[in-house]
Amino acid sequence: MDSLPLLSLILLCPVVGVVTLFAVPDHKATVVKWVSFTVAAIAMLLSLIMFIGYDRGNAGFQFVEQYAWLPGLNSTYHVGVDGTGAVLVLLNAIVMLTGVITSFSVQFRVKEYFILFLVLVTGVFGSFICLDFLLFFIFFEIAVLPMYLLIGIWGSTNREYAALKLTLMLLAGSGLVFAGLIMTYFNSAVRSFDFFALKEHAALSPDMQNIIYPLMFLGFGTLAAVFPLHNWSPDGHVAAPTAVSMLHAGVLMKLGAYGVLRYGIEMYPIGAETWRTVAAVMAAGGVVYGALVAAQQTDLKYMIGYSSVSHMGLVMFGLAAGTSYAVSGAVFQMFSHGIMTALFFSAVGFFYEQSHTRDISAYGGLARKAPWVSICFILAGLAGIGLPGLAGFPAEFMIFVGAYEKFPILTLIAVPSLVFGAFYMLRVLQRVFFGPEAGHTPEIRDLSFFGGTARVGLAALIVLFGIMPRLLSDVIAPYAEALFK
Amino acid sequence: MTAGLMAYMLISVTMFGLGIYGLMERRNLVGLLISVELMLNAAGINFMAFNYYLMPDKVDGQIMTIFVIGLAAAEATLFLAIVFAVFRYYRSINVEKVDHLRG
Amino acid sequence: MSELLQIKLTLTTVLAPIVSFVLIFLFFLRQHAIARWVSLLGITTSAACSTMLLWSVDSPAHHETVSLPWLLPGDINFSIGLLLDPLSLVMLWIVALIGTLVQMYSFSYMEDDANQAKFFAFISLFCFAMMGFTIAPNLFQSYVFWELVGLGSYLLIGFWNHLPSAATAARKAFIVTRLGDLGFFAAILVAFAGLGSVDYAGMAAGKNSLWTASLGGLDVATWTSIGLFLAVAGKSAQFPLYGWLPDAMEGPTPVSALIHAATMVAAGVYLLARNSFLLTVGSESCVIAWEGIAAIAMLTALMSGAVAIVQNDIKRVFAYSTISQLGYMVVGIGTGAVVAGMMHLFTHAFFKALLFLSAGAFIHAAHSNSIQDIARAGGSRLKVPMYSLLAGSFALAGLFPFAGFYSKDAILEHLLVEHHYIFLAAALVGVLVTSYYTFRVIFVMISEKGDGHDHHLHTGAWMVPPLVLLMIGALFSGNIWNFAVKHWFSIKHVEHGNAALITALVSSGVALIGIYYSWRVFYKKSSADPMEKMKGLANVLREKWYLDWSYDKLVHAIYLPFTWLLNRIELRFVKGALDGIGTACMNVARGFSRLQSGEVQQYFGLMLAATAVVILLITRL
Amino acid sequence: MDTFLFITGAMLALGGALIAVAARHLFRAALGLSVALAGTAGLFVPLSGEFISVVQILVYLGAVAIAVVFILMLSPPFYLQRPKRNKWKVLAAALVALVFTSPLYITTLLWPQPSRGPSESVDTTAKIGHAFLKDYVFPFEIISIVLTIAIIGAIVIARDLPSDKRLERAAQARKLADDENSVEAAS
Hints:
The structure holds 4 protein chains of 4 kinds.
Chain A: H1 6-23, H2 29-53, E1 62-70, E2 75-81, H3 83-102, H4 110-129, H5 133-144, H6 146-154, H7 159-187, H8 195-201, H9 206-223, H10 232-239, H11 242-265, H12 269-274, H13 276-294, H14 300-321, H15 324-355, H16 366-369, H17 371-384, H18 392-406, H19 408-414, H20 417-432, H21 449-467, H22 470-483
Antiparallel strand pairs in A: 1-2
Helix pairs in contact in A: 1-2, 1-4, 2-3, 2-4, 3-4, 3-11, 3-15, 3-21, 3-22, 4-5, 4-6, 4-11, 5-7, 6-7, 7-9, 7-10, 9-11, 10-11, 10-14, 11-14, 11-15, 13-14, 13-19, 13-20, 14-15, 14-18, 14-20, 15-17, 15-18, 15-21, 15-22, 17-20, 17-21, 18-19
Chain B: H1 5-25, H2 29-54, H3 60-90
Helix pairs in contact in B: 1-2, 2-3
Chain D: H1 2-22, H2 26-44, H3 50-74, H4 87-110, H5 124-133, H6 137-159, H7 164-179
Helix pairs in contact in D: 1-2, 2-3
């Protein structure tokens, strides 16, 4: 297994998909869908092999491959995963597969849709495995840009506006990152983009780190929807087509948090230390703010969008606190929030396709009409409010325990978000799934078998990782401990 | 005995300036073409003069002039064709009316 | 019994219900007959195993812990495991036993329900959660299962979720208890940060200097106690978080019985008992905090007892009486009488389950919750429920020889011995009130003779055995505790002169006065209902001390407007700022786009001007 | 002889250019251009550019200027109209021309430069021939390709039978132009 370039193969899957799709005639929508499904399934399988094969006792990078790429700039194709990377690659594969399954209902310009979707996934995979700053940045941009078209063409409510806002804000963010990247390159002792080289030998002066870290934090933080740079995200989620929302909230926002961790905290530890309090205040603000604003939303997707702001705030809070518990929790939260929101959006998309409304008050008594999809949504909702036994709890618990060491007051301010979360989530659950049926709700039928596999699969994962968090934390914890030893 | 380089250059600059004036002032596409031809011609004069006074052993300047003439011919051809097309389209060759690219 | 066998038995006890839950959920959601038997089998297994476990305990010092890291590899702090000591085993036994009886009872009570498979699945989940909580060896596991208990109650209270009132009650229960859980969470954070351990054994053995380390004016132990009490106030329905419990009556009656007797509300008292070591490790402030806890509990007991007087819904009467009894338990534990508090929890589990199940039998038969309606329908002719109601009432009022007599007196005696005279006086007032409202129910029931619809009335076949068994429990559980259970707790019984006798006589006397008065008012009707005279007080009581009203105001006048405000800020300022930037860019661009007139000559002029500038710059003219 | 040619050529070139830009009548402007080109050809002779001079007359005068005249002749008679000068436009144009040429004039006048050419005249024609077949063979071929393409392009653009859609658009554009009181043309 050592000789097999697993990570490159995973990265190659969507690329092969894109190339194959170019060759498929436009009108053969079914072929397009099954080709996408196949590459997604293969990527899933390979990611699973990678995750199982990952050496849990080892905190360093694994499955490392390195080839020359731009020797003039000292930039190489250097890939590998550690505790975070492995978890996030797995997450991306899961969301990709379920996203493709969810997208089987797409009717309009199917081929272009799937090509863009796979390009997006390629960018995300690349970002998670690349250990070269320049290449990472390139993949990062690849991941951000297709979103514009996906939302602008296949989206719903106010899509041009949302797509433009999203793209502009994310590009502004990557502009900051790019500035930081260039500054790092030219101010470091080594002229290299390699992650290890920069981390070990760059020896940036504390002043420099203090300047660059905020660029990284704000730049990547925009993508992670850190308060108050979050506004693109609810609008974007609402406008995006179902699978794109899934991918977007499920994976792309994690990319921002991942960037903060890998190319912020790991690379500029002094800068991270200096700006810790500011970062924590922003993140904790997001946690509470998102949970409070979510209570006012009448659109299901907006509600989930703001809950995502709150949950991603938790991730950033954990990262900002920077203790081994908190970072483990943050990475865990990235994963569980990824699955959770993917499930949320998948279920909401399922309702929307049938009823063409996302207004919370338009629904009622869904649990009786469509029990399976309702159970999925309810599980995601309960995971979202940190119920033990579901995947959200271990993450939130670790984050708060870890953060309390550094920021006791802020933590105690952020903890009530558990109640605020319960408040809006249960209100929605009661309204949509229980209670009397709303008079004008259109007939909603339950999941088909094929579409059901995606939703039920995600729900099963939420339960699985909730009951056995060690499946993930065994991979994450050594990394987090090594980070702060 | 010939006039000095300066004389040629003055002629060239003057002709060029007239070309600019025409280019700015004319409202008619054909008028513009005429002005452009004048400017090209001024450039040709410069090439010839520099070649003669600064490096009489070589003929690069003269060759440039030939190129200028050749390109001018090509340009004129296309330009006139465009004039036809524009006229068909707008029923006018007044450049002040032809402003579909206005921002 | 070997330790391994004990562990296996414990695991069987705890896991049997969750296995039935999974089985029902995966396979038998539509086969109701199979589902109920699967569920009953599971909980019966638990009951059997826990009984065997209880027998196997031979000394008060019995203490056994097994833990496996659950959250993080190699991290023993946040682990899942089991703690076997007399406290947990007794509790486990109660939960399993009451759970079994309630499920058996539900066979009849839920027989017509279309979703009864789901009901049995949920009730199994609920029992599992409570058992997992019971055997938790550390605060972390307690929290995990504590939350699951909350989930179970949410699902069960809202079981008839097509009724908006049920769904709302479930939501209220979940959110209000979650508010208390914040305290739990904070307690975990404080304790872990202060001690580096949340293991009960580790915490109890924690250095005094760590516990008394100053933290924000008070010490670690005090903050932990306060946090935990907040959690207890939520789950065990103490002031000011008890508002959810009466509303929880929206669930099916067996669920009420379970919640009130052995699971949900018992969890809080049990947690407090588990952490009563805090009383000994903390400094002066911690002791004061525990006194405060007891005071709040006493207040709760009186307030809710008073509200129970004016309730006409039979289940609500018992609900408020539960709150009041929980207050007694917390007073006991708060003043240091852990064993007495637990004893009251033990006996209360039996007689309160009995009361609810008999109330359920009436409701099932008469299709109404109102005492007067039941009485009019001839409820008093239902033999078995009527006897059990009587037995339960005697126990609740604390009359000899019923179980409540022993346990309540244990607490009173402790208060007397420890010189908590104010608490003692308040407790006696509570006893008076309790016997008054308890027997109000009975006298109202038997004072009406019914109007001949009695042929509709019958008690379900599956209801009788649990009622009979619980009646026995209500009679003898106090003696069982005194003879069998008490010797497991390492508290030597010290004779305090005549304290026991005095409290027994006084409290029995007080209770009898209450009963007599109740008889006069509601049966003989020779004196007027005091509530008729004190209209103002009655109104306050009917409004439940305006507690629900305050919640409502808190949510609708403070919380929701605040979120509304934030939402406005989001739209106006956060989103507005971004849109403003966008608009500004568009305007600037529009300005520049004027330059793009489309006129060739203008472009040319600009180009030339620019070129001239460049030439000037290059030649430096 | 050279001096004569220079003076005559200069006068013709500048005079012709002046007419070319200043004449209100477009046809006259075209003729002015011809004169200017001819004068330029004369200017080339003293610079030992006999060959170029001939090329100038053949290609420029013979082809380009004639093409301009042709287009005028073949066009609808817009060129006959003589619209008023726009005073501001004239002023602006003159100003731009002046601003732009003034640094050139200054440079020309200030910088020292050889006033004398080589004493003996050289045979440039042969040299040009050699250069074209050696050093400049590639650009030479390129320019022929450019010319060919230009001719093809000109034909394509000029014959251009409008399709329905384009006709529609043309009609729209025409309407636009008409609205602005068009067909004034020719300046």
